[in-house]
């Protein structure tokens, strides 16, 4: 028995356009530990926008009911040639009610419950999800649980990674984001030092109001000195950068080296022996990452993704992290939403141009029904 | 009792000049496990040139007996402000006869022997060296042993690193270097796959004559395809890059991803899950390293230095590596020298302009006496 409903898909076309549209699809009967969830709420995260708006000219797109055709920068279209003509389902996470379950024990136990899930196609009427990755929400609403995976688990993964690599302080760039605000709360709870980098004074105020001890303004004239001072105060030689392109990571490494070199008694042509590391976990800027030869050879820059982290961390760590998220769903891990849209509204010009900006505190929630 | 002799030093000056000169200095009496070596031969390695010629205008320098004053690019002078006015001793390694020893057991055992050493100031008449890092040369000449540390140990460290990280094939850029030729021989002995990247056809011929199976010409029109083919054939997802600046590392990562992505059944917005890693171990190009957003998030770029590698590897690994170098001193680890110069000759315009080019097969040997 299959269920029919709408699904948002994104297709890159060879003619330098991208199509975003709602299609009717059949959701197959769940098997084993799969469950079928009637979606009630799903957040639009930056990681979703990669398939939806990256490189697209939203101003000059063609908006018809249930379908948007956007001109796309040729280099973006070319870079994603592997998906030309192949519709990609969109939406990482969301929450809703389990209306069918496979015969697996975990799936059966979720029947009738409200759960958060990570189906990878959450922008639609239904989603087929893995029961092992579902979080039963109990008395919480779908709105409260909709964004309980991507940002909470990523923020927790940063702190887990820092501990595992022997650090007790970290730098976070673009730190006023929804994820950044969670990280700020987690670091305070866990006594992990945190240097927040933000661009605008009001973002700095926001984080300070939420207890942040170190906030550095990247738009300030003395940015690099401020950053070095905060690194000196916290000992943060590990950082997480969602910007990716440009000089954000380079500036952090240079500031780390500036502090480390100031403690050296003699000049060393190879730089300080202080290991410095930056993880790039997003691509808010698509420009190339630029690394200057300014910090010797004791440095590492690495991509960071949640899924391989979780696979490596193992089920016990995963369960511990998920329990913590559930316990803090309306506090530490609460997400604010600017507005809610249904599946049709999310494809209007006004909505798309607004959520594609990814402005601080202006996250959208998709409520299909 | 001290010994007096000449020492080459390099001084960066605040007026955008660099001075390279021979100074008379006192070498103190060795203590503990120190030995005093009368230097007989020392190679000029690229790592030595960083303090000697990087950023300098050798054409318009002032060459007087025993002293060279070179105009230096302002950004280079500024980047090394930590050493302004502070003479730096020059010369990583060399070989000679132990003429005095501290009272430590290891030092005493070397008395009167010919040894290779890593004093960090080998361009001079004498050097004070750590006995634990000395390699007794037995019947080998100082010329044979002079270059037995930096390049041999670095090449061996690449293979040790690859094994430790689970790889059985590596990429090497600028692969026709003295180090690259050693690596080519080591990889054949150890059955480690090797993709050699070179710029000129004659460099490719040189490596092929020495048994290289995969040589890729970076100057060829189909360079990236060639590189991807070699990666496909060897499974090399780890590489070592002495160029550092520009796109060498990026091109390797892109080629790795091209091979990994061709094996994926579905498009993944985050790239392949094949981990890709490049170590930058030199800065033949001082331009920034450019990393394009073309290979997802499963990648790492890291600086590589021999000293921290050896410290982490521990004494047993160090001893095993050194024994292998000694056993292969005239075969696997043999260095060819274009010419030999004494301390005065190494500061002449002709010599400096020649060795600063770091041309393949044109390494200089300094013989102080």
From TrEMBL, chains A, B:
Every Enoyl reductase (ER) domain range: 13-326
The keyword Oxidoreductase belongs to this UniProt entry's keyword annotation: yes
Record bears the keyword NADP: yes
GO molecular function terms noted in the UniProt entry: NADPH binding; oxidoreductase activity, acting on NAD(P)H
Pfam families associated with the record: ADH_N
Origin superkingdom: Bacteria
Keyword terms, alphabetized: NADP, Oxidoreductase
Designated name of the protein: NADH oxidase
Organism: Aurantiacibacter spongiae
């Amino acid at each position: 028995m299959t269920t029919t409903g709408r699904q948002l898909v994104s297709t890159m076309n060879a003619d330098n356009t991208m199509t975003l549209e709602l299609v009717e699809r059949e959701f197959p009967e769940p098997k084993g530990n799969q469950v079928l969830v009637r979606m009630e709420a799903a957040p639009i995260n930056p990681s979703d926008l990669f398939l939806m708006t990256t490189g697209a000219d939203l101003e000059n797109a063609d908006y018809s009911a249930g379908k948007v055709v956007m001109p796309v920068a040729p280099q973006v279209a070319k870079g994603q040639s592997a998906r030309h003509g192949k519709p990609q389902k969109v939406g990482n996470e969301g929450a809703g009610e389990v209306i069918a379950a496979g015969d697996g024990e975990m799936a059966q136990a979720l029947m009738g419950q409200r759960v958060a899930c990570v189906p990878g196609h959450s922008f639609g009427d239904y989603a087929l999800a893995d029961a092992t990755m579902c979080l039963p929400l109990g008395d919480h609403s779908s709105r409260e649980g909709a964004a309980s995976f991507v940002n909470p688990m990523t923020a927790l993964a940063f702190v887990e990674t820092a501990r595992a690599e022997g650090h007790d302080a970290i730098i976070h760039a673009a730190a006023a984001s929804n994820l950044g605000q969670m990280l700020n709360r987690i670091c305070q709870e866990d006594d992990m030092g945190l240097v927040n980098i933000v661009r605008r004074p009001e973002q700095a105020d926001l984080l300070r109001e939420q207890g942040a001890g170190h906030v550095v303004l990247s738009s300030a004239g003395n940015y690099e000195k401020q950053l070095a001072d905060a690194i000196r105060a916290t000992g943060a030689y590990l950082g997480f950068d969602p910007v990716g392109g440009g000089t954000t990571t380079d500036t952090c490494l240079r500031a780390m080296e500036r502090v480390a070199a100031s403690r050296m008694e003699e000049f060393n042509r190879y730089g300080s022996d202080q290991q410095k590391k930056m993880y790039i976990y997003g691509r808010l800027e698509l420009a190339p990452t630029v690394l200057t030869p300014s910090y010797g050879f004791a440095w590492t820059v690495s991509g960071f993704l949640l899924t391989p982290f979780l696979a490596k961390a193992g089920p016990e760590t995963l369960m511990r992290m998920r329990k913590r998220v559930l316990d803090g769903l309306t506090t530490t891990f609460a997400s604010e939403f600017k507005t809610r849209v249904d599946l049709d509204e999310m494809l209007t010009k006004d909505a798309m141009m607004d959520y594609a900006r990814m402005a601080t505190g202006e996250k959208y929630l998709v409520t299909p029904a």
